[in-house]
Design a protein that fits this description.
The complex is a heterodimer of chains A (200) and B (144).
Chain A (H helix, E strand, L loop, with lengths): L1 H18 L3 E4 L10 E4 L10 E4 L3 E4 L8 E2 L7 H8 L6 E6 L14 H11 L5 E5 L7 H21 L7 E5 L20 E6 L1
Parallel strand pairs in A: 7-8
Antiparallel strand pairs in A: 1-4, 2-3, 4-5, 6-9, 7-9
Chain B lengths: L1 H12 L10 E7 L2 E5 L2 E4 L5 E2 L4 E4 L4 E6 L4 E4 L4 E10 L4 E16 L2 H5 L4 E5 L2 E5 L3 E6 L2
Parallel strand pairs in B: 9-10
Antiparallel strand pairs in B: 1-4, 1-6, 2-3, 2-5, 5-8, 6-7, 7-9, 8-9, 9-12, 10-11
Amino acid sequence: MMRARGLSIALLALTLVGCAGPSLLLMNNEDGSNEGALAVIDEKCGNPDGSTIAGSFTRTRLSGCAPRPKGVGEAALKPEERSLIANLPPPPARFTMYFIPDTTVLAPGSEGMIDALAEHFKARPGAELEIIGYTDTVGKPEYNLTLSQKRADEIKGRLVQLGFPAEVITTTGRGETELRFPTPDETENGGNRRVEIIVR
Amino acid sequence: MRRVLLVSLSLLAMTAQPAWADIGRVKKTAGAAQIERKGTRIDAAVGTSLLPGDVLVTGKGGQIAVAFADNTRFSVGPNSRIAVDKFDFDRTTRSGAFETRVERGSLGVVSGQIAKSRRDAMKVRTPTSLLGVRGTRFIINVPQ
């Protein structure tokens, strides 16, 4: 009991310290990993690499060039901090559709994805779509760049026909870069002939 | 044959690219929530497009959530002024530069593709420091 009280007083003190001036609360990543970091990079600090602040659930006063993060633990988050995190927009959702070789025609089975996409879109206030086209490695890179853009434009056209507002849809072609399944050049691969749709 | 099919399909699908000056959109809002743009104030309604230079302003009980084109996400707390000073993003290379200033209040951030593109490509300024974001989820608090 005494120990618990001592702990809560210590936490309160930490919280008050955090309130004195600008502060940083570094959390874990959304997937629970701890790889995140920030760095104090003020030029006047004379440290070109910056002073790194790492470690999830740490609180740091933002003053001076040598930050001293203090571990606080997830339980010590203030209610207003919890609500700030809860109010973040949801992470983007991703859909993938595949194509018949050297065309902008959807492969069998990819049509059904449009319904799932539509439902997802309606459920997200202020939603936008980013459509990114890709190809496999058959053909020249420049040809594939154009083909990938046409794939993205084709899907945009179909979505607009279905009533999606054109002004919230962007398209990009990335050709035979960022292969989903790495292959040598001139290799047919259905998994690489795709558009990826990001709902934001 | 394939080539002919492709050309005819692409002609059908060819549509003008929208001007993508906007860098993000408001996804959620509550209470007193506005966007200061070139000296005027507009309501931060859901779906409102943001431009570089915009300042997100909230009053008592106010809140604004924004998703940016590089998948960075912001949650602005009450009594806040958050200036999006710079947002350059190349959709093809997924690299760019992003600078935000927390003048007062609170800002929750999940960083996106710009922060991953290059060391300190995403920066956050507070009245007392300049931070380089190296990919993470965090909260900045600047009390009055």
